[in-house]
Design goal:
By secondary structure, this protein is mainly alpha-helical. It has helices at about 15-30, 45-60, 95-100, 100-115, 125-145, 150-190, 195-210, 215-220, 230-240, 250-270, 270-275, 285-295, 300-315, 320-330, 335-350, 355-365, 370-385, 390-400, 405-420, 425-435, 440-465, and strands at about 40, 70-75, 80, 90.
C-alpha cells in the first residue's frame, strides 16, 4: 500500500518573501557569533605596542591583568569595534583612520572593556531569546500557510519578527549603555580624560546626520546602540565632573598614534590617495611614513628608500624605521642589503616576534647556508614569545628542511597549519613529526598536542555537519 502525503498549498508570493526575509534575519543572528573570523587581522609590531600602551592603564582600572587582554586590529574600513568572547578587543582599521587622537581610541577601548567586564558577548542572551521567538513565529506562520491561512500566517510571522527584533535590539541597547558607564569609570580610575570619548561619539553623531539617520525615539528603538546624541549628553555630564577631565593627554602617545595612523593609511590605501593625503610638501614623520609605503606599493623603490632613510636620519635607533627599510629591500628582491637594518631592529626590540620573523625570512631568502643557524636561532626565539605566528612557523619549517631536520620541519608545518585551520594537513604533519622525534622530548610532546588539537577540530566539524 502506498501512503498518500497530504497536499500542502504553496503560500502566496508576498508570504514567501516575508519568510525569506525572516530566514535572512535568523541567519544574521547566527552570523554575529564569529565576526572576526570573516575578516583579516592586521599585525604590525609598532601598532601592537601602541595599542597595548593605550589599553594597559584602562585594563588595570577594569580590574583585569594587562597581559591577559589583547587589542587586535581588524582589516575593515568601517568605523567599528567589538568584543566576541574572551578578553579580546577588536578595533577596525577604519576606526583608527577616523580618530584624530590617541585619547579617542582610548575612549573606545574603555567602552569595549566595559563589554568584557559586563560579560557582554555577541550573540548572547538577547540574540538567543530573539531566536527563540523568531523560530516559534516562523513555525506557526508556516503551519498556518499550510492550512491555507495566508493572511493570518503573514501576520504571525511579521508580529514575531517585530517581537524578536525588539527584544534583541533592546537587549543590545542595554548592554551599550552599561558599557558606556563602565568605560567612563575606567577612564576616570586611570586618570585619563573623557574628552576623546566625547569627541569620538561626536564623529559618530556627525556620520548619522550625514547619512540622514533619524534621532527620533522611534529610530532609537530600531537600533542596537543608543542614539549618539543621547549618549553624548549623558556622558558629558559624567565626564565634566570627573577629576581627570582637564588632564592633558600624553603627548608621546599622541605622536606615536599619528605615526601609526599614517603608516596604516599608507599600507592600506591606494598609493595615489596616500600621496594626496600626505603630499611631498610635508616632511614630518607621519607623512614620510605614509609615503614610504605608498612608493613601495607602487614599486618606486628608490623613493621609498629615500623616505625610510630620512626617517632613520631623524632617529637612527628607531627599530620600526629600520624594520621598514629592511622590509622594502627584502620585498624588492634585495635580502642581503636588508640584513643590517633588520638585524639591528631585532636587537633593539629584543627579538620582538614580528620583526624577528621578518629578519629570519631575510636570512633564508639570501639562500646562503651560512645564515641558516642564525635564522633558526632568531625564529625559535620569535615563536617562543608568540606561538600564534604562522609566518614565523613557516619560515622555521623552511630552515629545518634546508638543514635536513625533517621531524622538526613537519612539527613547524603542523603548528602553522593548525593555526590556519588546515586540520587535515596539520594532523598529517603532526603524525609524521611524532613518529620521528625522540619519544618523551619537548618537541615530541608538542607534536602530540598539535595532533590531538587537529583531531578534536576535525571531530567537531564532523559533528556539526
Amino acid at each position: 500500500m502506498i501512503a498518500h502525503l497530504p497536499r500542502i498549498t504553496m503560500p502566496p508570493l508576498a508570504l514567501r518573501r516575508v519568510v525569506a526575509r525572516f530566514v535572512a534575519l535568523l541567519l544574521a543572528f547566527s552570523l554575529t557569533a564569529q565576526p572576526a573570523m570573516a575578516q583579516s587581522i592586521l599585525r604590525d609590531a609598532e601598532t601592537e605596542a601602541l595599542l597595548r600602551d593605550l589599553a594597559d592603564p584602562l585594563v588595570e582600572a577594569a580590574g583585569l591583568r594587562p597581559g591577559n587582554v589583547d587589542v587586535v586590529l581588524v582589516n575593515d574600513p568601517s568605523i567599528n569595534a567589538f568584543v566576541a568572547g574572551g578578553q579580546v578587543v577588536y578595533l577596525h582599521s577604519g576606526l583608527i583612520n577616523a580618530a584624530d587622537s590617541a585619547n579617542e581610541v582610548q575612549g573606545v577601548i574603555a567602552h569595549e572593556l566595559g563589554h568584557i567586564t559586563g560579560g557582554h558577548v555577541i550573540n548572547t542572551d538577547g540574540a538567543s531569546a530573539a531566536q527563540t521567538i523568531s523560530i516559534l513565529s516562523l513555525l506557526i506562520g508556516v503551519a498556518m500557510a499550510a492550512a491555507g491561512g495566508g493572511d493570518a500566517a503573514m501576520g504571525a510571522i511579521m508580529a514575531g519578527q517585530r517581537a524578536a527584533m525588539g527584544k534583541y535590539l533592546a537587549f543590545n541597547r542595554t548592554q551599550e549603555s552599561s558599557a558606556d558607564a563602565a568605560g567612563a569609570q575606567f577612564l576616570s580610575d586611570a586618570g585619563i580624560t573623557g574628552k576623546g570619548s566625547l569627541e569620538f561619539f561626536g564623529k559618530l553623531l556627525n556620520q548619522e546626520y550625514r547619512y540622514s539617520r533619524s534621532q527620533s525615539e522611534e529610530a532609537g528603538f530600531n537600533r542596537t546602540h543608543p542614539l549618539s546624541g543621547d549618549r553624548i549628553a549623558r556622558l558629558r555630564e559624567v565626564y565634566e565632573k570627573d577629576p581627570a577631565w582637564n588632564t592633558p593627554p600624553d603627548p608621546q602617545l599622541q605622536a606615536r598614534f599619528e605615526r601609526v595612523r599614517a603608516k596604516l593609511y599608507g599600507y592600506l590605501a591606494e598609493p595615489a590617495r596616500t600621496l594626496k593625503a600626505y603630499p611631498v610638501t610635508r616632511t614630518d614623520i607621519p607623512a614620510r611614513y605614509a609615503r614610504a609605503y605608498a612608493y613601495h606599493k607602487d614599486a618606486r623603490i628608490d623613493q621609498a628608500l629615500a623616505e625610510t632613510d630620512a626617517l632613520i636620519a631623524s632617529d637612527p635607533d628607531n627599530p620600526y624605521f629600520l624594520e621598514l627599510r629592511g622590509q622594502v629591500l627584502l620585498e624588492s628582491g634585495r635580502p642581503d642589503e636588508a640584513l643590517p637594518a633588520l638585524r639591528r631592529a631585532t636587537e633593539l626590540t629584543q627579538n620582538e616576534p614580528l620583526i624577528a620573523s621578518l629578519f629570519g625570512h631575510a636570512l633564508i631568502a639570501t639562500e646562503d647556508r651560512s645564515h641558516y643557524d642564525e635564522a633558526e636561532s632568531v625564529l625559535r626565539a620569535a615563536v617562543a614569545k608568540d606561538r600564534r605566528n604562522p609566518f614565523a612557523w613557516y619560515q622555521l619549517g623552511l630552515v629545518y628542511a634546508a638543514k635536513g631536520d625533517m621531524p622538526r620541519a613537519h612539527l613547524a608545518s603542523a603548528e602553522q597549519q593548525v593555526m590556519q585551520r588546515q586540520y587535515i594537513e596539520a594532523l598529517r604533519s603532526a603524525q609524521l613529526a611524532e613518529s620521528a622525534l625522540p619519544e618523551g622530548s619537548a618537541d615530541w610532546l608538542r607534536a602530540q598536542d598539535v595532533r590531538m588539537q587537529a583531531q578534536a577540530a576535525l571531530e567537531a566539524a564532523r559533528e556539526d555537519s
